[in-house]
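Please check the following.

. . .
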Amino acid sequence: MGIASWLLAGLLVGLVAPRIRAGGPPGGCFGNAVLGIVGALLGGALATYLRFGGLLSFDWRSLVTACLAALLAVLLGRLLRRPR
């Protein structure tokens, strides 16, 4: 349940993140979703390492960590794709 909730949270954050931070070049729906999922998996793994939850169990702290990491990954991706 933990990994599945991280994947879903990352997908949702990746799709919603461009609407939270307006401006800048659009990352595309697919690109933002992938960045959100990757960020959520990294954040969830970090939360598991910090003993907030497990890979197979649901924990709110690991879900929040996964969402924040997904948002950070999408925003960093937008910064790196910005034309110079």
